[in-house]
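A.,

Following up on our hallway conversation. Structure tokens first:
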């Protein structure tokens, strides 16, 4: 079956990067693109009318922590200063002997309602990605049970997922004074790694090839060096991409320097982890960052030399008063820049805008992080991270992952006059402007409707799941605080 999509602007593909085709067409047959250009005279069986709209390759989200992220809503404009703006320490480190409550990512299978909660988490994640034109995503270390649920929703709703349970050799808890305390459990890490490998071997290449495996040692500072070495061996043996958090956290940076007399990226090099198959989450607090006061830093050069990908999540880290320092410096070093949504919202268009604006502001350079560069990061950058030359582009032979974006915003005025569709998208677009999404040659969202998902019901369920998370915070917060104490209301709450 052959289908023609009639644009609008079409983002085509030249030798190395995208091209702009006014009033273009895209033709796909089964799961592959067969033609991209100004016209097509051959026979087609079906047509998608995208006139007046932008037709572009599906976005690739290189940093997804699944779920509705209710706990993250507690750390806007708030947080313990001694964590240096590191959000996950606020909301994922329980008081010793307790568990983070209400969040299905930390539930046990025996907990009441655990299955339904995990299913909601998976549906919410996959549907939100789809709504935002993200056709491929890389999950960044949720546990095995979450991966199983994601696998089901990826199969049902049609995305491409790189899945693989996260593992580490220990974790943080809060001690009796609320201080961070490291709990090391190397044996548990090895067990988690082995069960992650079992899952990967079972699912890699399944669901018509839409599901692939990925290795996720969660953070470089929470994994033993043996576990990192085992990760490299498995990646080479099974040709799997690796994701991890590194050079992302002031505490992590100083802990690694103190323990190993090396910076996080130097440590990764020492254990053989660096390579073009590695995606580093954030990589923004590198030794070269002036504010870390580390002399002789060479992490940017190292990441560039090994062709590493940095998954930049500009919205998430901007909320913590941070950004990449700086976009043009990373690019010049040869680092592959890709974008991720990390937590919320999973709006890749907003990520592009923030990457562009912060890229300019931080480097004091209006030419930096252009609309073209951030759009490349959201498409080709992700494809490079995965070693895929059939994703992130609209070119004959590539996968039929196509997104249609309404530049007229259903007769709104937000875009104004559109001259260059990519500049317009980066400056004026939002995720809700995505109207139709094709993945692997199948229409998975049409006119903002996803067959099989009642978005209003999912939102209602996520709201009540969020209320449960917020209600139970004092049960596990190391300082015993309520949600209101952790996260004061933006304005005084009217009580009567
Ligand atoms: Zn992350």
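Then the amino acids I'd put at each of the 496 positions:
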């Amino acid at each position: 079956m052959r289908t023609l999509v009639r644009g609008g602007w079409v983002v085509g593909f030249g030798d190395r990067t995208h091209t702009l085709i006014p009033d273009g067409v895209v033709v796909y047959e089964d799961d592959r693109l067969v033609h991209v250009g100004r016209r097509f005279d051959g026979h087609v069986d079906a047509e998608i009318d995208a006139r007046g709209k932008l037709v572009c390759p599906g976005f690739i989200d290189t940093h997804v922590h699944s779920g509705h992220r209710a706990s993250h809503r507690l750390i806007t404009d708030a947080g313990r200063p001694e964590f240096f703006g590191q959000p996950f320490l606020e909301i994922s480190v329980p008081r010793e002997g307790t568990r983070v409550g209400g969040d299905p990512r930390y539930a046990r299978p025996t907990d009441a309602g655990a299955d339904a909660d995990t299913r909601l988490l998976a549906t919410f994640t996959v549907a939100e990605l789809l709504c935002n034109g993200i056709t491929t995503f890389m999950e960044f270390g949720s546990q095995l049970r979450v991966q199983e649920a994601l696998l089901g929703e990826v199969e049902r709703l049609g995305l491409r997922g790189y899945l693989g349970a996260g593992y580490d050799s220990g974790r943080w808890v809060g001690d009796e004074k609320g201080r961070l305390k490291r709990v090391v459990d190397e044996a548990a890490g090895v067990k988690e790694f082995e069960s992650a490998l079992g899952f990967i071997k079972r699912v890699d290449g399944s669901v018509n090839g839409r599901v692939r495996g990925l290795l996720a040692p969660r953070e470089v500072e929470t994994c033993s060096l043996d576990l990192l070495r085992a990760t490299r061996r498995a990646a080479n043996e099974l040709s799997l991409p690796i994701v991890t958090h590194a050079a992302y956290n002031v505490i992590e940076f100083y802990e690694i320097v103190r323990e190993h007399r090396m910076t996080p990226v130097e440590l990764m090099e020492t254990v053989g982890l660096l390579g073009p198959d590695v995606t580093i989450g954030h990589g923004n607090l590198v030794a070269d960052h002036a504010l870390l006061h580390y002399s002789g830093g060479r992490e940017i050069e190292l990441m560039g030399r090994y062709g590493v990908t940095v998954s930049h999540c500009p919205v998430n880290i901007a909320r913590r008063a941070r950004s990449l320092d700086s976009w043009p410096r990373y690019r010049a070093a040869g680092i592959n820049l890709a974008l991720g949504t990390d937590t919320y919202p999973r709006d890749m268009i907003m990520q592009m805008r923030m990457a562009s604006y912060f890229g300019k502001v931080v480097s004091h350079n209006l030419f930096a992080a252009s609309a073209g560069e951030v759009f490349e990061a959201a498409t080709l950058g992700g494809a490079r991270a995965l070693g895929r030359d059939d994703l992130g582009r609209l070119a004959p032979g590539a996968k039929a992952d196509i997104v249609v974006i309404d530049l007229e915003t259903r007769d709104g005025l937000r875009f104004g006059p559109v001259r260059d569709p990519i500049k317009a998208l980066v400056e004026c677009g939002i995720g809700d402007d995505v109207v139709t999404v094709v993945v692997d040659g199948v229409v998975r969202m049409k006119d903002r409707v996803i067959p099989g998902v009642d978005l209003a019901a999912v939102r209602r369920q996520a709201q009540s799941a969020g209320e449960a998370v917020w209600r139970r915070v004092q049960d596990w917060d190391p300082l015993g605080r309520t949600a209101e104490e952790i996260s004061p209301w933006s304005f005084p709450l009217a009580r009567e």
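The first strand starts at residue 2 and ends at 13. Curious whether your intuition agrees with the design.

B.
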